[in-house]
Amino acid sequence: MLALVSPALLVILALIVLPVGWLAWQSIYHDGFTLENYRRVFTEDVYWRSFALTFEISLAVTLIALLLGYPVAYLANALPKGWSILILSLVVLPFWTSVLVRAYAWLALLQRTGVINQFLRYLDAISEPLALVHNTFGTVVATVHILLPFMVLPLYAAMQKIPNDLMQAGASLGASPSLTFFRVFLPLSFPGVLAGCTMVFVLCLGFYITPELLGGGRTVMVSMLVSRNVELYNQFGAASAVAVVLLLSVLAIFFVVSRFISLDRVLGQK
Amino acid sequence: MTRISPARIALYVISALVLVYLILPVLIIAPISFSSARFLTFPPPSFSTRWYQQYFSNPAWMQATRVTLTVGLLTVVIATPLGVAAAYAISHSKLRIMRVIHIALLLPLVVPIIITAVGIFFLYAKVGLVATMPGLVLANVMLGLPYVVISVLAGLQSFDPAQEMVARSLGMNRLRSFFAVTLPQIKSSVVAGGIFAFISAMDETIVALFISGGQYQPLTKRMFTALRDEIDPTIAAISTLMTAASFVLVLLATGRRRRNA
Prior knowledge:
Distance between the termini of chain A: 25 Å
Number of strands of chain A: 0
Distance between the termini of chain B: 40 Å
Structural class of chain B: mainly alpha
Oligomer: heterodimer
Helix content of chain B: over 70%
Order of helices and strands of chain B: HHHHHHHHHHHH
Shape of chain B: globular
Structural class of chain A: mainly alpha
Largest interface: A-B, 76 and 83 residues
Radius of gyration of chain B: 23 Å
């Protein structure tokens, strides 16, 4: 059995474990051991601000995705099967469209000469085009769009497990629909909330395409810090240290969440 | 007659708006790609296929398309058997280390892709695989493996292993019983896994940005570079074609799976 799994394992070891390990090594070793790279990451303003911004954006994206995703998952769970399949298909459809294509679509929609601005001017609703993109706003709009399916699917899966009788029991005991929702349904859907939020937050921490294309150079997220240190400045040690800190943040989040719910749930296998 | 509560109406309206938000960007690209205007204008002036002509007549875009298709097909051809073998081993072995190996095979989904990309770039720079076809294919095999493993494991879960035991008790060896009994029954999950690996390779952008170059640049890398400079409607045409390809492939993958279920 080990022989069967070894070719796949070899690919994983050679192309992800080894490179990431190498990255970690490079962050502490350069003609001798050094913590200089980490000193820079933790003390220099540029790095510090970028990490803070990345966590802020990830938090905002996660909360918005939860607020937008919860009603959709709730409706898909409540409606008869045909409707719920339709809703879930609409959620999954963009999921299988290239992230790059979706970033381009948002650029086409949001830019100064974009569809939304042209439409608003056509209606005479605005006289000057609105600055919808090349800023944090555009980044957040597109990132929420791309990550929303990762929120809706675990929410829906968790809601499916809530027995309908519980809601009926609440109603038969005289509770109003909103009371049964807040006291029974919402708490029981919590595993889905946690799974969805974890996945969206973690994916957002490492997001690259949307901030790079829609951030207008001002929204420097951690991933861009890594790529700029490699591509522009040839600062491989600094890039590696940033990557290691990012990876450790992600692993720490997964570790903490795994104390509460099964990770299979987060990774969407169950 | 039951009264519809305001909360219910709000739920429907909000959900409908969210669904529009999800779908609109995917649908907006097609009309842009068929517009005759150089710049995006609303309403679109007139119908034209000039951006498609520009795409099909440009040697650089055509070369990039060949690279994307070659990488995608080679990824499927390599990742599918590796993933099937691994999934089979994971589901049939009781070794404790298999649990760890299972998690290791899902690493590409967990490690932020930008970190994977930079790591592979450093590795390839050492061994001379930057801007080569084998380098691009290997990276995509790694990224596609989890999709095959997840899909095939799901297929194996609904398959009764006793059938294979029967075949073996009748004298078939393990390999023959796998191909004669097990594989035909998990075929649709294998095909679905392969299709997802292809879509993953076709859409992959970030690793390609770091490790591809020269004549071996896939479509996504050229599109990304072009998007940084200016909005060229040719990209709308390419995006429309890629989206259509993804949809057809996903329909094939899920359609097969459903029939099997």
